[in-house]
UniProtKB/TrEMBL annotation:
Taxonomic classification: Bacteria, Bacillati, Actinomycetota, Actinomycetes, Micrococcales
Protein family according to the UniProt entry: Belongs to the short-chain dehydrogenases/reductases (SDR) family.
Keyword Oxidoreductase included in the entry's annotation: yes
Name of the featured protein: NAD(P)-dependent dehydrogenase (Short-subunit alcohol dehydrogenase family)
Top-level taxon of origin: Bacteria
Molecular function (Gene Ontology), one example: oxidoreductase activity
Record InterPro entries: NAD(P)-bd_dom_sf, SDR_fam
Length: 258
């Protein structure tokens, strides 16, 4: 059976993915702050290093797939640390352990929020990989009015999608036979969004900003099924894509852009 590593496995999309893969007979090494085989804090350099060491030990040094799902949506610098630097460190740190697999795969979770307003300065710092400066910029944005807080989250997802685009076709990934992709979900019913979609009125006003004409707000299993396919042996040629699983938000918001 395949061995997969899932960050953010204790809740929401990560948890649904873990359950799905286990039902299909895969071995899953879950990573999270709590309730996981590997407990690690992806917001710190120590935690990122500990994640790789622990997965190497638990797996015996060989894994088949990485699912970097862990994320935060709070208007604070921690969102930068987890969503971008924690995700990139997970994917890059675990890549050597994929070398022994017959069908190595990796996927990250971006967001349709990448289509919303973002902060150019923060995106540039993330793209440069400058964590201290990116954290400082996020601190400035965090002090501004509440709507600006969303700029931090959106910026992390723009930078993450861009990172996948830049890396996927390189020698380290495509050249090593490893498809690297992202999914970009619309609104998914998880603890992350629970406060935003509590009432019918809240759901309606959110769907005005994030239109989901096909079937509306989705359950996490919807995203889990896509993640599982992207990281399966069946996926031999889908590479460097940001796959929107958003009930049509991208088609509405970006229209003719392809
Ligand atoms: P969630 O809050 O249910 O789960 C996120 C998990 O990440 C939690 O278990 C949390 O403990 C873990 N995590 C947070 N900080 C961590 C850290 N420092 N170290 C290790 N683990 C940490 O949220 P979710 O909705 O399942 O989100 C999963 C991913 O999907 C995130 O990247 C999120 O940005 C993305 N996403 C969610 C939605 C949505 O509508 N829910 C939409 C688009 C994208």
């Amino acid at each position: 059976p395949r061995t997969s590593v899932i960050t953010g496995a204790a809740s929401g999309i990560g948890k649904a993915t873990k359950e799905l893969l286990e039902q299909r007979g895969e071995r899953v090494i879950g990573v999270d702050l709590h309730d996981a085989e590997v407990v690690a804090d992806l917001s710190t350099a120590e935690g990122r290093g500990a994640l790789v060491d622990a997965v190497r030990e638990v797996s015996g040094g060989r894994i088949d797939a990485v699912y970097a799902v862990a994320g935060l949506a709070i208007p604070a610098p921690a969102t930068v640390a987890v969503n971008f630097f924690g995700t990139v460190a997970s994917i890059e740190g675990l890549r050597p352990l994929l070398a022994g697999s017959e069908a190595p795969r990796a996927v990250v979770v971006s967001s349709m929020a990448a289509l919303m307003a973002s902060d150019d300065e923060l995106v540039a710092l993330l793209t440069d990989g400058d964590e201290p400066a990116a954290m400082d910029r996020a601190q400035v944005l965090a002090k501004e009015p509440s709507t600006t807080g969303q700029l931090i989250y959106a910026s992390t997802k723009v930078a993450l999608s861009r990172w996948v685009r830049r890396k996927a076709a390189t020698a380290e990934w495509a050249g090593a036979g490893i498809p690297l992709n992202a999914v970009a979900p619309g609104v998914i019913a998880t603890p992350m969004t629970a406060d935003l979609i509590d009432t019918e009125q809240e759901r309606e006003s959110l769907l005005k900003v994030v239109p989901m004409p096909l079937n509306g707000i989705a359950e996490p299993i919807v995203v889990a099924r896509l993640l599982a396919w992207l990281n399966s042996a069946e996926n031999t040629h889908l590479c460097g894509q940001i796959v929107y699983v958003d009930g049509g938000s991208d088609a509405v918001l970006r229209g003719d852009s392809v």
